[in-house]
Amino acid sequence: MKNFTTRKKGRLIIVAYRLPFKIIKNESGTSLFQNSGGLVSAVLSLAQGSNNTSFEFEDKIQWIGYTDNTAEELEGVTLENDNFKAHPVFISQELNDNYYEGFCNDLIWPLFHYFPTIAKFETKFFEAYQEANLLFYDAMVDVIQPDDVIWIHDYQLMLLPDLIRQKFPKNKIGFFFHIPFPSFEIFRLLPSIWREAIIDGIMGADVVGFHTNDYVEYFLKAVRMVIGQGNRMHYVNLNNRLVKVDAFPISIDYKKFNDAFDDPLVIKARHDARTPLMEKVIFSVDRLDYSKGLLNRLKGYERFLEQYEEWHGRVSFVMMVVPSRDQIEQYQQMKSEIDQTVGRIGAQYGKINWQPIIYQYRSMPFEELVGLYTASDVALITPVRDGMNLVCKEYVASRKDEQGVLILSEMAGAAAELGEALIINPTDSQDIADAINKALEMEPEDQRKRMVAMQQRLREYDVFAWTNDFFTQMIMIDQEHKRLKLD
Ligand code: ADQ
Predict the structure, then answer these.
(1) Beta-carbon contacts of residue 448 (< 8 Å; ≥ 6 apart)
(2) Strands 55-57 and 315-322
(3) Residue of the nearest CA to atom 35 in ligand 1?
(4) How far is the CA of 123 from the centre of ligand 1 (A)?
(5) Residue 283: which of 369, 403, 379 has the closest Cα?
(6) Which residues span the membrane (predicted)?
(7) What is the DSSP letter of 354?
(8) Among 244, 145, 201, 231, CA closest to 478
(9) Are 62 and 11 in contact (CB under 8 A)?
(10) In sequence order, what are the beta bridge partners of 247?
């Protein structure tokens, strides 16, 4: 009998829409700027120090992803740094408009975030989606070796697991979904050929991961309804091939955020984030997106100012919005509504010496971000739908002083783990207003109790635990196969 405790060796191949670095080419040569995003550091940690799995990594991490450079621009350029070897996927502008902007961002993103009325169902989008997934596949065919473990990410690549499975039946394939998977009543709005292609595509993986148990359930129901396949304890048996579908709540580098509290640059940023006139500070940080509930939040804050006059002149709401997709009309319109609402609230309630809202439209460096997190009394996170939401986890992790109150939407995946937050319904302005008042009045001891409980949970399951967990499931699926006697 095969000994499954032997440490296997192989390479890790990550496939995500974007490469892990930006490629800048000028007269003096080519430079690669590695992204600092969560996924990049998580997979790095797996290949380097914190690998607790029974798998030994050979070679650098191979990363397949789209680049906006052309093939001519990259000719002769070594796309490799100490950590990653990149295999670029070239997608023409026209194809990308229909694939990424079209199918991904004008259909799947709104539909899966429960905005079906703005989802655009266009045949040319779906055709482009198929074509682009094939381009990713083509870029991989010559890269894949027999022992490679392939980990595919997100809604831009739902057809890819099965494409790879057909050609490489023995490789381990994982698929992780970063946005919500919707209930079947939403999913079934997709034309039947599209939804079949999506379910077949994803089910090419050995392990399919979502942020929450709800998304897992919705997906399993879609599998049952679309391809008639049930499951036992989260295992779907597809012609004697087992697919595990489970929840893996993504997390953050807890230690990095917690340690940052004492970093001199963060201390300075914390100091700079509030003036002596501010008795209490509330903040929010998100990308410009309709799913993030920015307008609902402003309306809730407006209701709070209307009803809780005792806080006038004493509280400031710092709302940071990161520019995103603002070339698109719908996003421009949303931005101008936000601008108007902020203006209206300021005009109605502001005083010469007090601004109820400080609104900025820009990105922030890490130190300034943690400075704001740790300077604020309240985090106001109100997405109308969010796969997970990392800002709330970053806020909790960064509060080494165990102070601060998190107000969190029940529509964020993170709400399933952070029950000690003040959980609100983002469409209910009164709920938001009352929660703000409750947060501002909360005693330090109550804040500490809630914060410590949430911190403990996040410390135990940080992003490195998440990566290890998912990866372990991928390489263990053979054992499950044996155990369930499917051979
Ligand atoms: P996003 O929709 O991008 O991610 P989120 O999880 O909140 O949303 O992550 C945003 C990241 O951007 C955070 O790490 C945050 O620190 C950073 N950020 C936000 N505003 C910033 C600012 N003004 N300046 C600098 N940095 C800023 C998608 C899904 C989420 C899911 C993640 C991970 O939509 O639901 O949590 O993937 O799976």
Answers:
(1) 402, 403
(2) unpaired
(3) 387
(4) 30
(5) 379
(6) none
(7) B
(8) 244
(9) yes
(10) 210
Both tokens assigned to 394? 């970053």
Each residue's pLDDT tens digit, 154-170: 999 999 999 999 999 99
487 pLDDT above the threshold of 80: no
| Ligand 1 atom 3: residue of nearest CA | 287
DSSP 8-class letter at 296: H
Which DSSP string corresponds to 358-378? EEEES---HHHHHHHHHH-SE
Each residue's pLDDT tens digit, 393-419: 999 999 999 999 999 999 999 999 999
- Ligand 1 center from residue 287 Cα (angstroms): 7
CA 229 to CA 100: how far, in whole Å? 30
Calculate the CA 191 to chain-centre distance: 26
Give me ligand 1 centre to Cα 429, in Å: 24
Alpha carbon distance 269, 327 (integer Å): 31
Four-residue CA torsion sign, 97, 99, 105, 110: positive
Q: Which alpha helices (DSSP H) does 123-210 contain, by range?
A: 123-141, 160-167, 184-187, 192-202
Q: Tokens 């979502």: give the residue.
A: 210
In the reported structure, the alpha carbon of residue 394 is separated from the centroid of ligand 1 by a whole-number distance in angstroms of: 10
| Ligand 1 center from residue 50 Cα (angstroms) | 24
As for ligand 1, residues whose beta carbon falls within 6 Å of it are 178-179, 250, 285-287, 320, 322, 363-364, 369, 386-391, 394
